[in-house]
Design brief:
The complex is a heterodimer of chains A (95) and B (93). Chain A has 95 residues and is mainly α. Chain A has helices at 26-40, 46-54, 58-63, 66-80, 88-94. Classes of the chains: A mainly alpha (95), B mainly beta (93).
Chain lengths: 95, 93
């Protein structure tokens, strides 16, 4: 059965499962809060969040961390909805 | 099509362009309906700006481990449980 990169269930692997607790960086905690706030405001929902993550180029998906994928999706969905203009975040970060 | 607890069902083997919550490893697999959940918004439309209504029926379906994954003998009695939307289910023998 053809599957997209995010559709991981049943992928064969010999790698052990990492069960350690992960320390979250401040930006990751903020990312989580931002998505909660966007949902509460009706700006985007969890299904859109997932669809945005699934739209990542497979190679980028593989190399991105959990919250990097959220960031990619939020930027994608909010740009699509016209809340952000294309390149706006990059310009803000660079200034 | 409404399904009853205990009924054999197969997860549709179709591909689907776009967001959906039916995992590839279950597509085409046959399992057993355990129960009907409360209906839920449809992620396949809600992911594209819709409100996801009308609510869709969702079932808890169980699968024999060996019907889904390469299964060592130690897993022979294990079952895999998954929530599957009704429109992804088909009647099975």
């Amino acid at each position: 059965m053809e599957r997209a990169v995010h559709d991981r269930g049943g992928w064969p692997t010999e790698a052990p499962i990492d069960r350690s607790e992960h320390e979250l960086a401040d930006w990751e905690v903020l990312m989580d809060a931002l998505v909660g706030a966007l949902g509460g405001a009706g700006a985007m929902n969890v299904d859109e969040l997932r669809r945005g993550i699934e739209s990542m180029p497979p190679d980028e998906y593989e190399h991105a961390s959990y919250y990097e994928r959220w960031l990619y999706s939020v930027e994608t969905i909010l740009t699509e909805k016209g809340v952000l203009s294309p390149g706006e975040l990059d310009a803000r970060v660079a200034s | 099509m409404t399904y009853l607890a205990g009924q054999r069902v197969r997860v549709a083997a179709r591909t689907h362009e776009g967001h959906h919550r039916t995992p590839a490893y279950l597509k085409g697999r046959t399992g057993r309906v355990e129960r009907l959940h409360a209906p839920f918004t449809n992620p396949e439309t809600r992911a594209y700006g819709s409100d996801g209504l009308p609510l869709q029926p969702v079932y808890l379906v169980s699968f024999a481990h060996g019907d889904v994954l390469p299964s060592p003998a130690s897993r022979a009695a294990d079952r895999i449980y998954a929530d599957v939307f009704e429109h992804w289910l088909e009647e099975a023998e």
